[in-house]
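Entry: Trehalose operon repressor
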Amino acid sequence: MLNKYYVIFEELEAAIRNGKYPPDTILPSENELAEQYNTSRETIRKALNILSQKGYIQKLRGKGSLVLDLEKLQFPISGLVSFKELADKMGHSSVTIIESFTNKQPSSLLQKEMQLSKEDSIWEVFRVREINGERIILDKDYIVEKYVPGLTEEICRSSIFDYIEKQLNLKISFAKKEFTVEEPTEEDYNLLDLEGFHSIVVVKNYIYFENATLFQYTESRHRPDKFRFVDFARRNEA
């Protein structure tokens, strides 16, 4: 026999899926749900935790449980796809805003991260991604100039990957990725629409050409309610 909290989770899950609670609405409060299901707040809290873990809701401090869009953008964890390719595939209205575009010497930290010398120069590009009128991603790109010459703001506003592959005829091969959940910085709050959100998903990408040359490091900062990070895993026999 299923625990009561799991039965409640399944009923709320069905209600979200059939549209009783549409995306971007707030679920009834814990007190209201406890009264509705004739149970304790602790039982309701367990049901809501499962909904949160499965990507149906986002708990907002002081506001309650926000119902998420089940059709939100899916970023493949193991894949390597540009923002433009993803937005086009999902059919969303998207805009890229160039916050800064500079050519400079790498910091000591970047020299270490990207195996560069003081004499090397990098493109530093900060881009805000707006989808359906909301600023929800901040991409901070650091690209080695000697490997990717001729970069411009217009290219960055469109697609850096397209430029590398179609104009420079270079093959982007693989990336090493690191995922963390962090508190937003002041910069995040200034550049993104984060009202009510107290966490941000940070994806660090080390991107390589087919000859294993590291040419780009990107720190991509995502508002957590608009994305699913997905992967396909196969169990190997022992």
